[in-house]
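User: Please predict the structure of the protein below. I'd like the answer in structure-token form so I can feed it into my own downstream comparison script.

Assistant: Understood. Taking the following sequence of 219 residues as input:
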Amino acid sequence: MRSLGVLLVMLFVAAPAQADAQARRAPARRPAPKPPATKTEPATLKCPAALGDGMTTGREYCDVLTGRSYADGIIIDLPPHTGPVTLTFDLHNRHTYSEELVKANRGYRRYTATVGVLTSDNTLLSRAVVQNEFRTGADLVERIGGGAGPGGVKAVAPTGTESITIAIPAEETSVSIVGEKLSVVRIEGTDNFNAPGRPIAVVSNVTLQYRPRPATRRR
């Protein structure tokens, strides 16, 4: 009996101590928040020379002008983001279509256009090149609306498509697509263009893939 009494006293004394230890125990840590999911969306462009909308797809096409700096190009604002941003776009050559030249077998062109992607301080991130040959209307990507041609199409149309993907460093808030040079091979010879302000290529389907920056909590 004495042993039983001693045991009960010990349990009685230990219980408050145990309860006090549990009260002083650090609260359980909350799990770290999951990083925001990657988001893909059309880019917001400042297009200095819009070519127009495609008659088949409705896609917007923008001329790329030759230039020497960020301000000369197609400026793409980047949304608030965490980590690098992936820029993708379709790069096309720019062809002035002539049914007469095609029928006379004199419409052949081989285009090579080079553009650069610059940061706002004129740092070159990457270059992109599109090269293709034009022989007939089947080599056009599609016709552009808003012109005076048959069916309301423009004479100028995109030809050839090169899908471009460029990684943009996390610290950048905008980039610019600037034309560098164009080579055109014709039956009669070769022409090269790099004078500032000349349209030498076309872009479309410009998209951004990024992780949105988490919203700042108010205290």
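That's the full token string. Residues 39-212 form a domain with the Jelly Rolls fold (CATH 2.60.120).
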